[in-house]
Design a protein that fits this description.
The chain has about 90 residues and is mainly β. The protein has no helices and five strands. The protein has one domain: Beta Barrel (OB fold (Dihydrolipoamide Acetyltransferase, E2P)), CATH 2.40.50.140.
């Protein structure tokens, strides 16, 4: 069952967030904010999720805005891969 083109049945999730930690080798911790409506009060609430991201070349630093993509499990916690650095920290 080989797919001829690059269209996946279930495309991988893409998120954008800010690098919180780069202390580990080839791993980043990225904080991703999402705005969701509260089920009862219908007020918009911000939720922050920390994602462990694989960064092969250690190119991103703390404070950078990065785009990450879902991938197969790379370790116990890492399920995301760095695609590109959107904006460097000032």
């Amino acid at each position: 069952m080989s797919e001829s083109n690059d269209v996946r049945k279930n495309p991988r999730k893409v998120r954008e967030g800010v690098v919180v930690s780069d202390k580990m080798n080839s791993t980043l911790v990225v904080a991703v904010n999402e705005r969701v409506s509260h089920p009862r009060y219908n007020k918009t609430v911000q939720r922050t999720k920390k994602l462990y991201v694989h960064d092969e070349k250690n190119e991103a630093k703390v404070g950078d805005r990065v785009r990450v993509q879902e991938t197969r499990p790379l370790s116990k916690l890492k399920r995301w891969r760095l695609t590109d650095v959107v904006e460097r920290a000032k």
